[in-house]
Amino acid sequence: MRFTERQAVEAPLSCCKAIAQVIAEVIEDKRYWNQLESVANLLPQRPWTVTGAKRMARNNYCLSYLKEELGGVLRGTKSSLRFLEKCKQGRR
Known about the structure:
Largest sheet: none
Number of helices: 6
Structural class: mainly alpha
Distance between the termini: 22 Å
Number of strands: 0
Order of helices and strands: HHHHHH
Number of domains: 2
Mean pLDDT: 82
């Protein structure tokens, strides 16, 4: 099971729900899924193409969802500032 970085940042509980659903199907135990039943289902995202990935890097796509998330939580720390700078440069 794979999640995009954006899915993990914007919908962590929906990611957990997807995992819980697989667990429920494999071991026939809905205990975890039941706890997340009211959480929205994870929205699918198209796989990236090489061309699309290059375009996203040029346009600093990661900043569209990480800047607010990381900026508020880690503002001022050296590691977060370096990470955001790498995003701006397309070198994540």
